[in-house]
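Appendix C: a fully annotated inverse folding record. The material below is reproduced so that readers can follow the format used throughout the book. The structure is listed first as tokens, followed by the designed sequence.
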């Protein structure tokens, strides 16, 4: 069915559902969130992990504020977006054509907050129809889900993750904008599945232990990287905290990755650490160990890994930490800082590490606003799961996305050594929410291609800098305006790779038409410049959307 004939039918269907939905009054669901940033190097010593069930002192069946909580919330929804663009296919300016884009999106949100299961899921299916060229018609999936199951109370747990994302096919092409389906050729749909059972406990009064297994699989919709499976085992035995000034830990991990192109590759690590509590707020650490890996290609590499680190918590609002280790690939480090106040929060991280199918295939290079907002809420809510849910709800109320404005993940056909620095600050006022983010990312390939490609190493060596600002203003309890701007620059580090610049600006206003229906409208502009021939393009668009929750 072509675009012009399909559009009025869709509008009529949504209008019928809107009239039925507005007749019922329920609380709008929270928005999705991004997962917290992974720790690529062992984190500085911390207190024992909290139970994924009730926090200490919280009664069963209650949220952190004492209100009755709903164990499960299921919220189906549907939205219809009409966009008029002067470059519907996101191609070079000389080839640009204008036209209408119709996006019908059914979806489902799930929030779990029971004594045994905590987590969330959001799934959206975008059906895209183009008025100028039916060959562009496509279907795109978005899924974000994280769940933790308390299998045996305070002993055995299972973490589960399933994601479907739209990643950049090439780091030197235009990155996809968050939550904006696109006909760009530089897009590949990536599915990530992961399950991780783990146990924890104590050995008398002397030590704590943590054992974890993790199995995952990644596949793309066009075979850019073969379906890849991974298995990981890890464990940690550490001295029990009891007010002593000295402590120790033993840590080990084994990881295996396999696909049809690379066969099976292994990576193993062993660590021993000694801790000294110099003052009540300062803890120092020394470590030694060994890494052994064949992820970088034959022969198997083995390296001793001396290291040192510290954590400093001068107040309940400020935390600092750093860790340095000598690794197979050279110097590795991880540093972090976090500050929170009643209306403001700030997060800074800096890392140098090696990534072997990071996140199973992609390297996350930006911070999530949900993480920053959850940090700001830490003073009044001891439950991390409840803080994460409240952060998602507040971002939804402000009509802001937790994800970076431009897609943050990079698919890589080879293992990479990367340097990554992120900084994010968020301010929340009575009517205003303002967020600023900056990121620096540099990667250099090493080892054999994971997809069997004969391309020489270095083809994806790059340096990327990104900055974005998001502002939300609540005009009335039912109406919110947003302004979002970002700029991203990518430079190739080897001869023949292009340099690119990308900017994206959008302004929108959203208003509640009823308890379950929201309408919004706005404008956006995308500009992509590249030294590669015929790669630069501009898009200007206006859009309107109606969404209904059931």
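Designed amino acids, in order:
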């Amino acid at each position: 069915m072509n675009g012009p004939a399909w559009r009025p039918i869709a509008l009529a269907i949504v209008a019928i559902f809107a009239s039925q939905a507005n007749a019922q009054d329920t609380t709008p669901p929270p928005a999705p969130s991004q997962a917290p940033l992974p720790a690529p190097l062992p984190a500085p010593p911390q207190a024992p992990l909290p139970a994924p069930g009730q926090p200490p002192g919280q009664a069963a069946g209650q949220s952190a504020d004492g209100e009755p909580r709903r164990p499960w919330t299921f919220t189906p929804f549907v939205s219809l977006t009409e966009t008029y663009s002067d470059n519907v296919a996101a191609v070079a300016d000389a080839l640009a054509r204008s036209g209408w884009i119709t996006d019908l999106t059914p979806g489902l949100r799930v929030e779990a907050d029971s004594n045994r299961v905590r987590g969330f899921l959001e799934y959206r299916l975008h059906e895209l129809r183009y008025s100028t060229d039916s060959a562009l018609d496509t279907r795109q999936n978005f899924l974000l889900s994280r769940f933790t199951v308390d299998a045996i109370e305070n002993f055995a747990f299972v973490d589960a993750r399933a994601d479907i994302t739209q990643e950049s096919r090439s780091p030197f092409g235009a990155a996809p904008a968050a939550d904006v389906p696109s006909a760009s050729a530089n897009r590949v749909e990536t599915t990530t599945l992961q399950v991780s059972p783990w146990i924890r406990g104590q050995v008398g009064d002397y030590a704590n232990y943590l054992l974890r297994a993790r199995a995952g699989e990644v596949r793309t919709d066009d075979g850019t990287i073969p379906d890849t499976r991974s298995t990981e085992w890890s464990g940690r035995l550490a001295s029990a905290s009891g007010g002593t000034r000295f402590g120790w830990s033993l840590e080990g991990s084994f990881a295996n990755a396999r696909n049809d192109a690379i066969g099976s590759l292994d990576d193993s690590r062993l660590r021993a650490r000694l801790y000294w509590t110099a003052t009540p707020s300062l803890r120092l650490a020394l470590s030694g160990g060994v890494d052994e890996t064949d992820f970088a290609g034959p022969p198997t590499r083995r390296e001793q890994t001396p290291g040192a680190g510290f954590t400093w918590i001068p107040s309940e609002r400020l935390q600092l930490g750093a860790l340095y280790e000598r690794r197979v690939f050279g110097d590795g480090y991880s540093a972090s800082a976090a500050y929170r106040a009643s209306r403001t929060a700030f997060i800074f991280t800096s890392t140098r590490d090696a990534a072997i199918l990071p996140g199973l295939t992609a390297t996350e290079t930006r911070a999530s606003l949900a993480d920053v907002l959850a940090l700001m809420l830490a003073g009044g809510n001891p439950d991390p799961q409840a803080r994460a849910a409240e952060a998602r709800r507040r971002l939804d109320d402000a009509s802001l996305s937790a994800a970076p404005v431009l897609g943050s993940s990079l698919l890589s056909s080879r293992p990479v050594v990367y340097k990554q620095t992120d900084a994010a600050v968020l301010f929340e006022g009575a009517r205003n929410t303002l967020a600023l983010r900056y990121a620096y990312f540099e990667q250099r390939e090493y080892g054999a291609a994971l997809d069997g490609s004969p391309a020489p190493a270095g083809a994806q060596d790059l340096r990327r800098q990104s900055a974005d600002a998001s502002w939300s203003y609540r005009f009335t309890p039912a109406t919110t305006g947003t302004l979002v701007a970002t700029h991203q620059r990518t430079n190739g580090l080897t001869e023949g790779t292009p340099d690119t610049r990308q900017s994206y600006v959008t302004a929108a206003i959203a208003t509640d038409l009823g308890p379950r229906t929201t309408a919004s409208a706005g404008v956006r502009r995308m500009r992509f410049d590249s030294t590669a021939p015929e790669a630069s393009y501009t898009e200007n668009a206006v859009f309107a959307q109606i969404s209904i929750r059931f």
